[in-house]
Amino acid sequence: MAMNNMCAVIRVDSDASRIFNYNMNFRKITPLAAALFMAGAAEAQITFSTTGSSWNGVSSFFGDGSVPNPFRTDDSPDGTTAFAAGSVNGSQYVFGFAKEAFVNAGSYDLSSTDLGAGTALTLNFTGFSALPRYVAYTGGVLTGYTFNSGTGNLTISATTVNPVASASDSSGSVLNSAFGLIIETGGSYDFQGTVFRTDGFWGDIATLNNGYSGELPLAGVNFNGTEGANVTFNAYLTIDFLNSIGINSPAECAAYLQKAGVSNYLTITRQLFGYSGSDPLITGGGYTFGGASTLDFNGSGVDNYLLATYANDTWSAGNIGVAAVPEPSTYALVLGLGAVAWVAFRRKRTTAG
Predict the structure, then answer these.
(1) Which of 67, 102, 128, 170 could disulfide-link to 22, CB 3.0 to 4.6 Å?
(2) Is the pTM of this model over 0.85?
(3) What percent of the chain has pLDDT over 70?
(4) What is the distance of C-alpha 222 from the center of its chain?
(5) Statement: residue 302 has pLDDT above 90
(6) Of 262, 271, 188, 186, nearest to 225 (Cα)?
(7) DSSP character at residue 178
(8) Handedness of CA 111, 203, 310, 345 (dihedral sign)
(9) Residue 280: partners with Cβ closer than 8 Å, 6 or more residues away
(10) Could you write out the three-class secondary structure of 121-168?
């Protein structure tokens, strides 16, 4: 289920008439009634918890007990208050912040609220019956992540971020601070607790789309970007998961973009915690990996994981994520297809001239 088909509810004051639905994609506001969310929330197990959650390191979140799952950054809402809600749709739980009832794209801009870009967030979610298949979020780098399989709790720490341009904000000037996330608990793609971070807006993230030709990334998401805007991604993948998909060393991990008519391998940088050695793809021998992770992705305690960082600036909606390094013959095929496309482009320009 694509994220842009999901809705959530936020309550902005004590007036029940101000409960509203908003679509995660600015281009279409869904007509779903608040009652639909009420039913979904009652059936869902996953909820946001103010216990163990904070913003700016010490400040608390407040809830309104009269409706399910609306939260705010202070107990006396004013012009700086940020509001949040979580909603379950199918196998995904979606959580995000806004500054007001949905009016336009700017409603998701948190820059005038308590949650300006760079604000530290620790968010605690309860009710998990199994390991999340993956988490995808818009925000700053991951500074804490703990999944507790015994209690069914997940805690994530990061910051709000000034998003770069993407389909929902093609100029990159409307949104100056944002944070939101998807937690996948079912569906076709199980990445065993992998976390994806991006500085592109969360409303443009969706599940991998298998409608393109070619191979899907071994782990990734679909993202709808803006041509020319450089969107950065981090993938935090446990070593156990990488081994299960046939990646057994840093040198075997690559980044991959797949969309209509295009399949590209992307430049990747990474750090592997709990591993001693040099990154073989860094010119001059690279740098030494080392240390221990403080993140627990699967409830088994501190994990060794690979942090893969990659970016892309050539966009339409496409799948982007981690793949295995291609065989030399595959490199040749990709380069060959690129050469054919270039020749065709040159011929077209010559004919047009």
Answers:
(1) 102
(2) no
(3) 72
(4) 10
(5) no
(6) 262
(7) B
(8) negative
(9) 250, 251, 286
(10) EEEEEECCCCCCCEEEEECCCCCEEEEECCCCEEEEEEECECCECECC
Burial of 281 (0-12, 13-18, 19+ CB in 10 A): middle
Rounded Cα–Cα distance for residues 299 and 199 (Å):
27
* First-residue to last-residue Cα distance in the chain: 45
> CA-to-CA distance for 113 and 110, rounded, in angstroms?
5
Rounded alpha-carbon distances, angstroms, from residue 92 to 6, 205, 223, 305, 335 = 9, 12, 16, 24, 38
pLDDT of 250 strictly over 70: yes
Least confident of 31-35, 114-118, 298-302: 31-35
Whether residue 164 contacts residue 231, with contact meaning beta carbons closer than 8 Å, is answered with yes
106 and 171 in contact (C-beta within 8 Å)? no
- Which structural domain range is residue 7 located in? 3-352
Q: What is the pLDDT, as a whole number, of residue 334?
A: 43
Q: pLDDT at residue 37 above 60?
A: no
Residue with token string 């075997």: 252
User: Domain total for the chain?
Assistant: 1
Q: What is the pLDDT of residue 136?
A: 98
Which two structure tokens, joined as six digits, stand for 243? 């081994």
CA angle, residues 202, 71, 45, in degrees to nearest 5? 75
Residues 6+ apart with CB under 8 A from 57: 120
Sign of the CA dihedral with 217 first, then 223, 225, and 231 last: negative
Helices (H) and strands (E) in the chain, counts: 3, 23
The mean of the pLDDT values for the chain is 78
Backbone angles phi and psi of 176, in degrees to 5: -115, -5
* Encoded tokens for 144: 């804490």
